Each structure stands twice: as structure tokens, then as C-alpha cells.
Amino acid sequence: MDWDKLRVFHAVAEAGSFTHAGDTLNLSQSAVSRQISALEEALSVPLFHRHARGLILTEQGEALNRTVREVFAKLAMTEALLAESKEKPAGRLKVTTTHSFGVTWLAPRLKQFLNQHPDVTVSLLLDDSELDLAMREADVAIRMHPPRQPDLVQRHLGEIRSQIWASPDYLKAHGTPQIAEDLDNHKLILFGDRKPPVLDVNWLAEVGRKDGTPRRGLMEVNSLQAMLICIRAGIGIGAVPDYLVQDPAGLVAILPDVKKPNVDMYFVYPEELRNSKRVSVFRDFLVNSISERNALKS
Fold this sequence. Notes:
Blueprint: H1 3-15, H2 18-25, H3 29-43, E1 48-51, E2 54-57, H4 59-83, E3 91-97, H5 99-106, H6 110-116, E4 120-126, E5 140-143, E6 152-160, E7 162-166, H7 168-174, E8 189-191, E9 219-221, H8 224-232, E10 238-241, E11 252-254, E12 263-270, H9 277-292
Helix pairs in contact: 1-2, 1-3, 1-4, 2-3
């Protein structure tokens, strides 16, 4: 099988259309179509079902694409390792983490890392769903739980703590809860998404509930940053991670005696990158930054 045709096939399979694949490859739609037709003729099997709304892989196409994805992922990893200098870390490092942690804590600190390692470039991929490191969707990840994928190296970075907050205006209008059970009579702001970035992100809905059923929030939002904005605006009470609260002005910490869940954070990467200098210096940078900043407290 011709490598160029496989490269075009993979781009079409991922894009779902000749046009979008052509944009990615800088080829015309007709050139992409010809490459796919030639590959199908060489293999004597159809690779795509063609219809008005786009392309769908056939069973044979699915099988080929799985193999091609693995091959190109390995090639990309090998290329990155070969390009890396033996003397110092160099090349692009693709880092993924949750949106709130990436925006609030990590992004402001990357200048220091890049100044320390001028031959390294960073691609920051913020996504509350987990990218597949084994398939090279990213090189390394900062995750709020131990890795679920096999063959990933992990390093515990620390614990993320949370606090319960309200605005002075809200407390003036609705009173200050003294015990967890008092939250039954207050307006809560909760995280509303099927794939939350942190396990137990809505623990405030359950704390102090004797019947085991969670409280309903007045408002749900699928962004921790937006939750904090709503808390500051006086809409209700909410719990957010400490790293998110860079400036506590306009906020009042409440229910300090309530037991709050801590979230373990991990730095993870594929076994193949264990000896990568880019990965090791970034890991050390994270460990030192977290230690210096008092375990992720802003």
C-alpha cells in the first residue's frame, strides 16, 4: 500500500469529507477523490459509503483506519523523539488538561517554562474530556484522577482543595448558613455537564443530606470559571477549587468546618516518552511550581 494514499485516506476518514481533508492536506477535492479511488481499486474493497451529507467508513475502511491511526501515531512519536536534541530538550510538547485548570492555573505559568527552555514549544489542548495519549492526541496530560489507560506513566502532583463561597450581597439577602444542613434552604450553583472535569465536582449538592438525595441547584453551568462569576454576582452559593480563586475580593468563605473532598492530580504520559527530555523538564517544572505555590492554592 502506498504511504501517500494511506495518508490521504486517514485524513479523509478523520475529516469525513474530501473537501475538508483537502483543506488539511492542501490538495484539491478532485485530487483527494482520485487518491481514494486508486486505493480502493488497489485493495479491491470499498473504503467509504458515499452519500450527500458526507462519507462513512465501510467495515473494511474502519479496520484499515484503526491500523493507519496506530501507525501514524507511532511515527509521530518517533519523529518527535528523533528531533529532540541529545544535549537539551527541544521540539513541540502537546499538553492537555481540563479547561478551568489550563486557563486559570497553567497558562499564566507557561511563560516561565518557555523562558527556561527556549527550544521547546507548547501546544496547550484544553478539554474536559480525556484525549487519547496512546494515539498521540497529546503527549502529556494533567488529570484529576489516576490514569485509566494502560501503559501510562503517572506522577502524583498534589491535591486540589475546594472552598464554599458566597457573595456579601447574597448573604445579606438570604443569611449565612451555619451548618451543612442549612444549604437545603439556599440557592446553589452547580456544575451541569454530563462529563464534569473533576469527580465529585457537585459534592455541595450532597453534603449534609441525611436522606441521600442531592439538592437541586438554582443554576447549573458547564464551566467552573462561570460558576465563580455567578457566585460573585450573588446568584447563589457554590464550591470551586482553590486554584480558581486568584482574588477573593467580593467573596466570603462559608461553612469552614464542613469536610470537603480533595482531588488528587496526576501528570501522565505514555511509556514511550519516559526518556524524553521535553517531558522530564515539564514534569519537574510542574512539581516545582506546585510546591512553590503551596499546593495549588492560587
